[in-house]
Amino acid sequence: MNSAEVEASWPQDAKTEINRINTAPNYYVVLHVTPNSSEADIKRNYYKLARILHPDKCKEPGAEDAMKTVALAYDTLTSPIKKRLYDSYMTDTNNQSGEHVESYAEWEARQGQVQLPAWLERLLRIRGVSWIVLIGLLILLIPLLIIVFLLSIIAWVLCMPVNFFIRIFFPEKYRRMQEEAREQEEQLEAERAAMRAAANA
């Protein structure tokens, strides 16, 4: 049977597809595509499977779980970032030997873990060493905090308001500026009073 005949006979009945999906080794097999398939092919196959496996239409046992797997496969393979991650997972698991091949969820969780150097892990297992490491880190951080504090004071001094600077270093000029501001305020108040009086007349 050639590939065209296989394609024509796919998808099969719901029971066969549920069994196929439950035993599929990866998302590409779930959606009956290859890593080089276009997004249009992935979408077309997803809709074909959804038509026969959707829980509203299919009452076969396991249909709901199979549909969840199909939806997850579709979501992963149509997102460029998720697909790239999944392809990395495929490469890693192809290189794994032994009976247990980790699932995509296990692999993804392992990628998020911070790996400490082996010597540090051994050191931290020794009783009381973690406290010594913590105190050492605090001793290193204290000078850093002092530097940050000093830099913030310098920044505050450099960004001081101009009026404050003038008031300290040029008190005469500051007094004149205050008087001018007061005169302008009085003049504005007089103009407002005149306008109110004219409006009331």
From TrEMBL:
SMART domains: DnaJ. InterPro entries: DnaJ_domain (IPR001623), DnaJ_subfamily_B/C (IPR051100), J_dom_sf (IPR036869). GO terms for cellular component: endoplasmic reticulum membrane. PROSITE patterns: DNAJ_2. Residues 26-90 form the J domain. Keywords: Coiled coil, Membrane, Stress response, Transmembrane, Transmembrane helix. One of its GO terms (biological process) is cellular response to misfolded protein. Pfam families: DnaJ. It comes from the Eukaryota. GO terms for molecular function: Hsp70 protein binding. Residues 174-201 form a coiled coil. The chain crosses the membrane at residues 129-147, 153-170. CDD domains: DnaJ (cd06257). PANTHER family: AT29763P-RELATED (PTHR43908). This is DNAJ heat shock family protein.
